[in-house]
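Sequence in, structure out. Go.
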Amino acid sequence: AVEASFVYRHSQLALDWYALDRAAVYSAGHDGWFIADASGRRCRENDGGYHWNFSNPAVRTFWVDRVIAEVASEGRTAGIRSVFLDEGDSTYCGYSFATETNCTGLRLPRRVLAQLYRDKLTALRAAATLLNAHGLAPIISLHAHWASPAHCRWA
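Output:
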């Protein structure tokens, strides 16, 4: 049996290689679950998945109660000690939807980005609480844009 010290989950993108993420992307009735441009086209990373819209309460609930809960329930029995949650801050601290996705020209106002970031933090906090309750340590990547704090000041 192979034991892993940690597993990886992306906290910003719904990625096709995870069954629950894929189901969220391709299931009917999930309008508003992903960042979209004015025409309603979902923003897809140039080299990856779709951007979760954490300002939608249904997304936060699904991501914590299904995506994170899946890892948490498998965690200790599989020898996992922690879960690495990638891109904890990237989209909401200076990410450019206009150049990094298929949503060319999309420029979200700072107040919208600020709310998205606060809502993402709410989901990350709930994920950390759930993981801790299962004896797992969350590792949240905040590498992306904190080096430039001006991007993350939401006055």
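Check: The chain has a mean pLDDT of 84. DSSP finds four helices and five strands in the chain.
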